[in-house]
Structure formats: C-alpha cells, structure tokens
Recover the amino acids of this structure.
C-alpha cells in the first residue's frame, strides 16, 4: 500500500432546491390561496475520521466530490426533498486546510470525529411565504441558494507519542523493530525507510505507546533536501523525541547537532520537545571509546544519555524506563496524546 500523507481535493455542497408558485385547486374551496412549497436544502460535505485508514491514498486519483442538490418544492405546501449529505472518510490525524486562505479548518484526531467542510445551500421559499393582507395571491418564489465550494489541502500527521529521529543509517528502523512488532525495511544504505513506520511498544503496565520511526533527516531537510522534509510534519504531534545517534559514525557529535539544527529550523517548537538521547551500535566500540563518547554527550546537558545496541537488544530497558517516566509527567490531552 502506498503511503500518501498529502492530498488536495475540491468539495462542492449541493444547491438548495427552488421554491415554487402554486395555488390550491380543490373543489368547494374557492380562492384557495397560495400553496407553493419550499425547496429542499442541499446536501453538505463532511470529513469523518476513521482508524481503519492509515493513508490518504483514496484521494490520490479522486479529487472532486459533490453532495446532492435539494429538490424543488411541490404543490400543496410540500417541501422538496433534502439533498443527501456526503461523508468522506479520512485517517485519524488529518489536518484540513483551505487552499485559498491557508486557514486551518479542523484537525481530525479522534475516531468518528466529523468536520463540515462545505455547507449545503438553503432551499428557496415558495409563494405561500409571501402571502399578506396586501397580496392575497403572490406569484413569485425564491430560487435555492448555491452550496459552498472549497478546495482543501489534507495533511496526515501521524498520531504517536514518541518520534524517533536521527540521520540515515543511525539504526532507527532496527530500534523500532526491536521494541515493537513493526517490521520496516532495513539495509546498510541511506534512506532505507521511505515512509514513516508506526510501532506499539508495550509498557510494564500492559498498555501500549505508539512510536513513530521518521525517515532519515539530513542537513537542509527543512529546505527540501533529502527525504526528511516530507515527514517532519509527522513529529509535530509527538510529545517526546527519541534521538538516535550512530556511535560508530566518524563525527557523532556533529551528527547530533545537525539534527538539532534541522528541528530548530523547521520550527513548531520541535527543538523544545523533551528528548531522550540514545547512542546506538555501542557493541561495536571498545569500553574506553564508549566511556569517552558518553562523557562528551553528557556534557551537552540535554539529559541522560543511553548506550544501546538495537541489534543485540542491549541497554533498551533503562532507556524505556526514562521514556515512560517522562511521558507520565505529561498531562493527557483530549485525544489521548500528552502535552509537554
């Protein structure tokens, strides 16, 4: 399945039905008066969040969606039938923007949450509404109003509490496969991960926490270089970042600062999120080299540093304990995520 996290669509609500001009035509009812019914309202367009979808693939080829028009009014004061509303299902975590104004119309983060994105037009009034003492036989009615039309930009931002960030080949995919049942593609070349991967990591209490493996960032990612700029939005919702650094790299400290600079340049307070720092592949280092490297990172002062090996599964326990402790200090928001 293709992972599509952006789409642009056009939504058109139904037009309201026209009101009509009609008069009562019944035996033994002279001068029966106006009896033109109102037009029915047009159908509206709604977006509905569903956990059954994980991507915006449904909108890859279908871009135009229209609700039904309302029906015109009938005689004998009968109101026309309302147009059927149109519901479009989107994944949980979809942000909806107006293309013309770039206004955020809504953020669908919980299952079955509904957002009206185009309001149906009102039905026109029939001539019975224009009856007055001065006009006993009105011969005009109003047309229905047109429904709203909008161009929308849909952006999927994954719902995860912990975002795993780091340069390509830092071992992020191996780590999430070691912590959860996720099985991302893993190889010894950059950009193995081409889409974000979600994994549920089981807590000691028995419940699960969602981790997101974000494709490798590189220097200049916030300007469109590499792959990471396409996926930085997926860590906007995370409340904690797990920064993985390849301890066997030529310049681990420089690699750490590269990611920090990209987070700061992207904005949206990503660089201010609580972080847990993990030096990966420490099983390939001598104890002396590892001790020196740990002291250099601890001198940076962002918090405790953990030496781990995702392949061997060593050092993961203390790192996870720190992650659980930090998450427990953050109050829950309404949609299940935690605020810093």
């Amino acid at each position: 399945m293709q992972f599509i996290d952006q789409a642009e669509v056009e939504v058109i609500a139904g037009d309201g039905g026209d009101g009509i001009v009609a008069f009562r035509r019944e035996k033994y009812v002279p001068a029966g008066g106006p009896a033109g019914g109102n037009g029915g309202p047009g159908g509206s367009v709604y977006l509905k969040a569903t956990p059954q979808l994980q991507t915006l693939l449904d909108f890859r080829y279908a871009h135009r969606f229209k609700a039904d028009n309302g029906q015109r009014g009938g005689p004998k004061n009968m109101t026309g039938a309302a147009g059927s509303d149109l519901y479009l299902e989107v994944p949980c975590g979809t942000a909806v923007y107006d293309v013309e104004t770039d206004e955020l119309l809504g953020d669908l983060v919980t299952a079955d949450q509904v957002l009206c994105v185009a309001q149906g037009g009102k039905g026109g009034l029939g001539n019975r509404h224009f009856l007055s003492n001065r006009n006993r036989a009105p011969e005009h009615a109003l047309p229905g109003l047109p429904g709203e039309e909008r161009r929308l930009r849909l952006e999927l931002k994954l719902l995860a509490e912990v975002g795993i960030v780091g340069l390509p080949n830092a071992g992020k995919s191996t780590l999430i496969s070691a912590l959860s049942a996720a099985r991302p593609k893993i190889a010894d070349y950059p950009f193995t991960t081409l889409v974000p991967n979600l994994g549920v990591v089981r807590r000691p209490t028995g419940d699960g926490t969602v981790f997101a493996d974000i494709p490798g960032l590189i220097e200049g990612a916030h300007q469109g270089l590499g792959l990471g700029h396409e996926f930085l939005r997926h860590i906007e919702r995370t409340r904690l970042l797990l920064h993985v650094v390849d301890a066997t790299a030529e310049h681990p400290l420089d690699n750490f600062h590269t990611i920090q600079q990209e987070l700061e340049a992207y904005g949206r307070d990503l660089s201010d999120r609580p972080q847990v720092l993990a030096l990966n592949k420490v099983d390939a280092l001598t104890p002396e080299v590892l001790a020196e490297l740990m002291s250099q990172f601890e001198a940076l002062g962002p918090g405790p540093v953990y030496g781990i090996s995702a392949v061997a599964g060593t050092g993961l326990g203390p790192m996870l304990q720190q992650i659980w402790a930090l998450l427990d200090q953050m109050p829950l928001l309404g949609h299940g995520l935690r605020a810093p």
